[in-house]
Amino acid sequence: MADLLVLGIETTCDETSAAVVARSPSGASDIRSNVIRSQVEIHSPYGGVVPEIAARAHVEILDHVIAEAMRQANADYSELSGIAAAAGPGLIGGVIVGLTTAKAIALAAKKPLVAVNHLEAHALTARLTDGVAFPYLLLLVSGGHTQLLAVEDVGRYTRLGTTLDDAVGEAFDKVAKMLSLPYPGGPQVEAQAKLGYAGRFAFPRPMLGRREPDFSLSGLKTAVRLEADRLAPLSDDDVADLCASFQAAVVDVIADRVRAGARAFRDRLGRGPTALVAAGGVAANAMIRETLVKVAAELNTRFALPTPALCTDNGAMIAWAGAERLSRGMRDRLDISPRARWPLDPHAAAAAHARA
Ligand code: KG4
Ligand code: ZN
What we know:
- With about 350 residues, this protein is α/β, with parallel strands linked by helices.
- It has helices spanning about 40-45, 50-75, 90-110, 120-130, 170-180, 185-195, 220-230, 235-270, 285-300, 310, 315-325, 345-355; strands spanning about 5-10, 15-25, 30-40, 80-90, 115, 135-140, 145-155, 155-160, 275-280, 300-305.
């Protein structure tokens, strides 16, 4: 079988991205291009992503981003093996823009369409960057998602745990907002934390020691809010110490929850993971990364973390997930619908519904 060459399109949130990625039959990868246009500046006056504005911005620049990705890859549409687009989950306006564009290209170029789950793309990125073998333990931590998953194969994901309330990135963003730091909050909180003293506030570590590898962050967020209200008006030192103490609590929670996830992995699969893999924007946080390195060593497993540009939303991960699916003969019909919600593990989602 020849190499697969796939165009990938990502428009589920506030990044417009297109990439061309090759996959050899043995699973080797080559990122030929990965063009990412962030909308951060467009949304920052509003303190968060405004869905209608995001969709309009995707419409305006997606064609150019795709043309640039094809140009940088020196690729012609006739050479492509398929067109992949993130078909969800995400902000539906943007998802429609990306998926519809992919369908049009697939139709015009007579190439297969692959509708990729955005979370699956995050989950498979470690195979693109590090060639990690199945099955592995994935910590997915982004602005919208916080999950521990057993990644068993392409299309086979078991959710071991999830957040009961806020996502980790969301908690970073909300703490930033309450401390009047600019959006997006994660990197700002991290920068402030470097300047602060983590021992000043003893914030709660929700779920610590629980057997089920679930997360809960709203209590921690509220504790930060109460302390900030009590201290107001905040000095620069207060802000830095609040960020440092908050981040230290998050780090402890993540370490403990990943250990619980590894136990759940072993219970379920009867073996340990080939690697601990982190994905999603929050994995760009240096202290969280360092902690995961230590936890992986404790667990006697390898740690794989894509570079920050491949941890946050990007077209290369969509193209790669498309190539992985195509390599297994998976493709989609042109009438497939975009999905605002699309759990990776439908069984876990159904069970959560039954419990609620
Ligand atoms: O994966 P991503 O780019 O977008 C999705 O949510 O899908 O993740 C963005 C999230 C935001 O909540 C952002 O604040 C957080 O990742 N983030 C960070 C850092 N960089 C980004 N959180 C903590 N520390 C960081 N350095
Ligand atoms: Zn994402």
